[in-house]
Amino acid sequence: VLENRDLQDSIKPQKVEFHSLNFNTTLHWQPGWAREARDALYFVQYKVYGQSTWQNKDECWGISSHVCDLTHETSDIQEPYYSRVRAALAGVYSSWSLSCRFTPWRETVIGPPMVTVVHSNKSITVKLQAPRSPYKRKRGSKIPMTNYYDLLYQVFIINNLLDEQHRVLVYEGKDKVIKIQDLRPGVSYCIVAKMYMPMLDHSSAYSSRQCTLL
Predict the structure, then answer these.
(1) Is 59 found in the same domain as 157?
(2) What element of type H or E holds 189?
(3) Which residues does the UniProt record annotate as the domain Interferon/interleukin receptor (predicted)?
(4) Which residue from 23, 25, 154, 160 could staple onto 188, CB 3.0 to 4.6 Å apart?
């Protein structure tokens, strides 16, 4: 019995955490500290905070992976959720490891917008597209993150002649197409953008650079 007890403890999953980007939500964990824990299988359950019964996540029942996709199960984005994971090895089951409470609306990370740049000889037109959630409209298109939050686009210009690290904010607002005028021909400019949420004072990461030579 003692050996089983030791095995139970040594294969118990560690660091059970939700990771979420634009409401694409996965549960991550690390294997127990025993060397043989590498061969363990994992079982995932979830529930809304306050519910008494746990639901099995069928696609993550007896898996060898350390990740489970719970995007669909956490689609009520204002609700707080919990998840838990247990491991099994050689017929022995560990106790459950519990995640922290996770509320998608508060805790998902908002990604950067997509940026497209079109240039003429003295101006740059910047087209912006907000990141999209995994949730779909009736017609099948994915709902943008701007539907869930009051988000602003922030657009920065980098003049490569001056300093590659020096970003100047040239626009903040909700327009999806903006024009930056009176630029110098023959100069290489780069544009980066991010999403900004005034209410929670959060910013996304920067988009990838889109560069153009006027």
Answers:
(1) no
(2) strand 188-197
(3) 108-212
(4) 160
Task: Name which of 38, 44, 46, 42 is nearest 63 in CA terms.
Answer: 42
Number of domains in the chain: 2
Contact 27, 15 (CB under 8 A): no
CATH code of the domain in which 60 resides: 2.60.40.10
Coil, helix or strand for 27?
A: strand
Low-confidence ranges of the chain (pLDDT < 70): 1-2, 163-164
Q: Which amino acid is at 116?
A: T
pTM score over 0.90: no
Please give the full DSSP string across 61-120, using - where no structure is assigned: EEES-SEEE-TGGG-STTS-EEEEEEEEETTEEPPPEEPPPB-HHHHPBPPPPEEEEEE-
